[in-house]
Every structure is written in structure tokens, then in C-alpha cells.
Write a structure and sequence with these properties.
648 residues; alpha/beta; three-stranded antiparallel β-sheet; globular
Length: 648
């Protein structure tokens, strides 16, 4: 197969990409837009792969076998090594559920479907990204999925003599439209889906197709200089203006994508390509960019896990240095060794290694215990990972709101609120299975960290207001017979939450947390909501909160060091109810009754004499974290909501 002439400036562009990603992951405040380095990689990959394929077709020697053999020799050596090392350290340092999750990630990474794995895991209760050692493999999954269909498409277009450039433009536009049309309603899908990401690789493919067409006249030198400066400028603009909280990729992805395309189009003679991208330090980093990308993230994540929080800057800097050293060693002694050996035996060994890693990952995911794998540790970590609240529910659009639905009775019940309403979904599903004839058609309209109180706004939760407006509009729908209003009232009204909440009224904002001026206004707004719903002729329930706080956090039971031995302590079955929460419970019961609603007193069911349940007799935690009841407990024991959902 024909390969393009080596260009040092493209290795320099790889250095920009990987350096940006490393800077963002290690020191996010220093380079907040550094994650766009992945998009630069996409363009480079699309350009090089398309050049190889089209040049080989032009020479008449394209071979799928040769193409994929080269992909295996390029991708597998470093990947298998990093996956093995990550699994080995995970076995040593992780807890049972963490090691199981790592096994799933490793299997997905070995099969190049990591983007689908993380897409499926995303949600309000998802584990923090900073604790997933193989999260960065989502981008490798996108690239390898592209490599499956792209050679076939180009081969078909070549044989049928289709207008290649027009075809590539059409496909890129379709993928880009999928990206911009899904970025707001389905942000996670837009980030991880190949359908919304392939356009970035196709931009490189379009550029390759254009450059392989003979030019009628040589382009002027100034054009290369302009493209070089424009490309670097667009990349720098993206690095300093794009933030992780923006709708990315969306339109924002045009900055790094077009910037990378301009740099490649400029050619090695472009002024910044020649003097910046092609300089020796940049080329050296570019040569090790692939193993460097693979090594850096597991090192940073494991540093965070071992430190039980964000590591000190010196530790993060040390992890970056270590990743560079490991990347060079991998390039020098692994990648160069395997690339130089083209016999089938090497390919079989690499493929076998990837399969072995995938099997090891599946074994870990299936329950193979890590070093710290006692039964009590497993129970505690099972509780922290027990978060599939909406399993078994149907999703549908009702009015303007997206709801989760279970049951098929004539009576219609709507539950609105945040994750403290969502936590009761497993009980509703259990009732639909055990008493289908009595079960109401039950809708859950919830949005994490979003109080269902008109005027309340959570800082850092931009989708809350729209979601609340949709759920409140649905609550007033004449087709709804009963409405259950619930939330983490302790979070919002007693200050038991890290984010600040504000109450907006008449153009002014009032802080709600910690007894702020907005507290009384928010409670009054909740009362007015209950009165409005009652006046509409519906049966209205105010679902009060469960006890919460650090005493209910299952992880409090774990002692020891990640690098030493970790044990789980047996839990006392109860913990004291915080006085502020008990007082709030009484206030809200009075508020509900005064506005025609019926309070559902959770504390009365879970607490007695000021002590609240936190573990079952077999030492299994009742809570998932410091606030949420876990699905396994709710499914069997939250019978206090049965009367809301069942007909007599």
C-alpha cells in the first residue's frame, strides 16, 4: 500500500493535540479548552488514512488485509500494554465495584466500543469522570469505528467512479448536522456518538481528496503562510475560549477542526508549520503522542484515587513526567519492535493479546475479586454503585416533558422533582410487577439537582429552569389525576448541598442556602405551587425528604490505604437524625396541609426516637451515598409510597 510522504509538521500538530489534552487533564484551569486536542487528532487521522487509501487505489494495490494489518501493528502494541498495566494496578488498588467497572472499560477498550460504554453509563448518578481510568479510550473507539466503514466506502466510490469529493462533502455535512441538532437535546449522545463525530475525520478526508487532485497551477507561497497562521490561530482561539461547560462539540468544534485542516493544508512550507510545528522538540513529542495519550490518563486517575481526592500540583506534574517517560519507552521498545516485524506471527500475537485483555476485562466485570475483595467490602461498594433507578421504565414525550413511565392503569399519577423523587422509581416498577391491576399509569418527570419550586435556580445547572417549567406545565395537565411533588428539601432548605441556590423574584436574586434571604421566599413559592395544583382539582402529595448527611454515606465504613490494606467496618444500623432536618420536616408537613396537599412523611417511616435507619441486619447499606436511598432497598422496603400509586 502507498503511504504519504512523511511530514514533520504533522507530527508537530500531533504534539499540539496531545500537549493540549495533557495540560487540560493535569491542570484544567491553566488550559480550559485543552480537550479540543482530541478533535485535532480526528482531523489528522482522517487526512492520513484517506491519503493512504486513495493513493493505494490510484496505484491499483489497495488491500483490506494490508490496511488492517497496518492498523493492528499501529494501534494494538501500546494499547494492549496500557490496558494490561491499568488492569494490574486496578487489581491492586481498587475496591470490588471499582474493579468491576474497570473490567467493563477494559473490555470495551479492547473491542473499540468504549464510546458506547461511557455513553450508556452517563447520567446524574454516573461515577465522576476523573475516577474512570480508561475514559479516554472513547476517542479511540470513534477512530476505529471510522476505520471499519471508511475504507469500504472509498473503495465502493472508487470502483463505481462516483464523484468522490462531492460524496465526502455530503457525508460530512450530514454528520455535522447530526452534531449540531443533537448537542442541546442529547448532549451525551452528541459527544460520544460516531454519527455526530465522524465529520471531524471526514474533514481530514476531504482535505486529502483535494490535495490528491492535480493542481492546474502551483499555489502561491503566501497562501501556505496564510493557511499556516490561520490554522494555528484557530487552534489557539479554541484553546482559550472553549470551556467544558459549553455545548461541545456543536458549532464550537469547528475551531479546532478547521484549524487543524488549515495547518495540514498549508503544507510543510507554511511559515508556522516550518518553524514551529516541525521543530525537533515538537516532532519528538508527536512521535510518542499515541502512547503518551494512552498512558497519561490512567496515571492521573490513579493518582486521584490513591490520594482520595485531587492530587497536589506536584503529584500531577510528576504523573505527566512519568507518562512522557513511559510513552518514550513504549515507542522505543514496543512500537518500533512490533512495526519492524511484518510476519503473520506478530499479527496473531497482537490480536491474541487484545483478545486476552478483553477476556480479562470481562472476568473482572463478571465478579473476579481484586486484592481488597472481602465480602463486607463488596457489600459496601455494591451500595455505592447501585444507581440504575430507571431500569425497566419506558421513556416517552408527554406534553413538552420527557418522562419515564411504568404501569397502565386508568388513574394517572405524576411524580415531579429531582433525584430524590427518581430514587423511588424501583418501588414503582416493583408495584407494576406485583400488582399490575391496581397500579396507576405512573410518570416520573425528574431533573437532577433541580428543585420543583418556581423561581429557584441552581448555580451550575443550566438545564434546570427549562426542565422545571416542562414538569410544572405537565402537572397542570387535566389528564393527570394526582401529582407528587418531592425533592431533596434538606439540600435546598438546610444548606446540605455544595452548590448555591438562588430564588429569583422581580428581577432580584436571593440566596437560599444557609438561611439566606431567599429561604422563606422559596418555601412560600412551594406552598403556592401546592395550592395551585390543589385548586386544579388534583390529589396533591408533598413527598418529604429522607435523612441525609455524612453519617449515612456507605464509604465512611471503608478504612485503610489504597497502597496498603483496605477493610470495611460493620455498620451500626442507625444514625442520628440531624435536628435541622427534623425541624424542616415539621415545617413542610404544616405547609402541605395548609395548602390542601397531603404530606408523605418519609422520616416517620425510616426513623424512630431521633435515630434513622442506615443499614439492614446483614450490614448492607440502605443508602447509595450520603443522600440517596439505594434501589435495592427502595424496591423492597419503600412501601410508604404504595398508597400514592395503587388504587384501593
Amino acid at each position: 500500500m502507498k503511504h504519504p510522504k512523511y511530514r514533520a509538521d504533522i507530527d508537530g500538530l500531533r504534539a499540539v493535540a496531545v500537549g493540549s489534552v495533557l495540560a487540560f487533564h493535569a491542570f484544567p484551569d491553566a488550559l480550559p479548552g485543552g480537550f479540543i486536542g482530541v478533535d485535532i487528532f480526528f482531523v489528522i487521522s482522517g487526512f492520513l488514512i484517506t491519503t493512504i487509501i486513495l493513493q493505494s487505489h490510484a496505484a491499483g494495490d489497495f488491500s483490506y488485509r494490508d490496511f488492517y494489518a497496518r492498523r493492528v501493528r499501529r494501534i494494538f502494541p501500546a494499547l494492549v500494554l496500557v490496558l494490561l498495566a491499568t488492569l494490574a494496578f486496578g487489581w491492586y488498588a481498587l475496591l470490588p465495584r471499582e474493579f468491576s467497572a474497570l473490567g467493563k472499560q477494559a473490555a470495551g477498550g479492547a473491542a473499540f466500543v468504549a464510546n458506547f460504554i461511557f455513553w450508556g453509563e452517563a447520567g446524574y448518578f454516573d461515577t465522576a469522570a476523573e475516577t474512570k481510568p480508561l475514559l479516554h479510550l472513547w476517542s479511540l473507539g470513534i477512530e476505529e469505528q471510522f476505520y471499519i466503514f471508511w475504507p469500504m466506502l472509498l473503495a465502493l466510490a472508487w470502483r463505481r467512479r462516483w464523484p468522490m469529493l462531492r460524496l465526502l462533502w455530503a457525508l460530512a455535512v450530514v454528520s455535522f448536522l447530526v452534531n449540531v441538532l443533537t448537542i442541546h437535546p442529547f448532549r451525551t449522545a452528541a459527544f460520544y456518538s460516531p454519527a455526530s463525530r465522524f465529520w471531524e475525520l471526514m474533514v481530514g478526508g476531504i482535505l486529502a481528496c483535494m490535495r490528491l487532485q492535480p493542481a492546474k497551477t502551483p499555489p502561491p507561497v503566501w497562501r501556505s503562510h496564510l493557511q499556516s497562521c490561520l490554522g494555528v490561530g484557530l487552534i489557539v482561539l479554541g484553546l482559550v475560549t472553549i470551556r467544558s461547560d459549553k455545548a461541545f462539540p456543536g458549532w464550537w468544534a469547528l475551531l479546532p477542526t478547521l484549524g487543524a485542516a488549515c495547518c495540514i493544508a498549508a503544507g510543510p512550507a507554511g511559515v508556522l508549520n516550518r518553524w514551529l510545528l516541525a521543530c525537533r522538540p515538537m516532532v519528538w513529542i508527536g512521535l510518542i503522542s499515541y502512547p503518551l495519550y494512552l498512558w497519561h490518563w490512567p496515571l492521573l486517575v490513579y493518582a486521584r484515587i490513591v490520594e482520595e481526592g485531587e492530587p497536589a500540583p506536584s503529584v500531577r506534574a510528576a504523573m505527566v513526567v512519568a507518562s512522557v517517560a513511559l510513552a518514550w519507552l513504549t515507542y522505543r521498545f514496543v512500537e518500533r519492535f512490533t512495526r519492524a516485524r511484518t510476519r503473520p506471527g506478530m499479527l496473531r500475537a497482537l490480536a491474541g493479546g487484545a483478545i486476552a485483555v478483553g477476556v480479562a476485562g470481562l472476568l473482572a466485570f463478571g465478579g473476579m475479586p481484586p486484592r481488597n475483595g472481602s465480602e463486607l467490602l463488596r457489600k459496601v461498594t455494591d451500595a455505592t454503585a447501585d444507581d440504575d433507578y430507571y431500569a425497566g421504565f419506558r421513556q416517552q414525550k408527554l406534553g413538552g416533558a420527557v418522562v419515564k413511565t411504568v404501569g397502565a392503569g386508568a388513574r394517572k399519577v405524576l411524580l415531579i422533582g429531582d433525584s430524590h423523587v427518581q430514587q423511588y422509581a424501583p418501588r414503582a416498577l416493583e408495584l407494576a410487577r406485583s400488582a399490575p391491576g391496581r397500579m396507576a399509569t405512573t410518570y416520573f418527570a425528574t431533573y437532577g439537582a433541580c428543585p420543583p419550586v418556581p423561581g429557584m435556580v441552581a448555580e451550575g445547572n443550566p438545564g434546570c429552569e427549562q426542565a422545571r417549567n416542562e414538569m410544572l406545565a405537565l402537572a397542570l395537565d387535566p389528564g393527570i389525576d394526582a401529582v407528587v411533588v418531592g425533592a431533596c428539601w434538606n439540600c435546598y432548605f438546610t444548606g446540605n448541598f455544595p452548590l448555591p441556590f438562588y430564588f429569583h423574584e422581580a428581577g432580584s436574586s436571593y440566596l437560599v442556602n444557609n438561611g439566606g434571604e431567599g429561604l422563606g421566599r422559596s418555601v412560600d413559592a412551594l406552598g403556592k405551587l401546592l395550592a395551585t395544583l390543589t385548586a386544579s382539582g388534583k390529589k396533591v402529595y408533598l413527598l418529604l425528604d429522607n435523612a441525609s448527611g455524612p453519617d449515612f454515606e456507605p464509604r465512611r465504613l471503608i478504612e485503610g490505604s489504597r497502597m496498603g490494606r483496605m477493610v470495611a467496618l460493620a455498620s451500626t444500623p442507625v444514625a442520628p437524625l440531624p435536628p435541622a432536618q427534623a425541624q424542616l420536616d415539621e415545617t413542610l408537613k404544616t405547609l402541605a396541609r395548609a395548602n390542601g396537599a397531603e404530606p408523605v412523611d418519609v422520616i416517620a417511616k425510616l426513623c424512630a426516637d431521633g435515630q434513622c435507619l442506615r443499614a439492614t441486619p446483614d450490614d448492607a447499606p440502605v443508602y447509595k451515598d450520603r443522600e440517596h436511598l439505594r434501589p435495592a432497598y427502595v424496591r423492597r422496603h419503600a412501601d410508604y409510597i404504595d398508597r400514592l400509586l395503587l388504587s384501593p
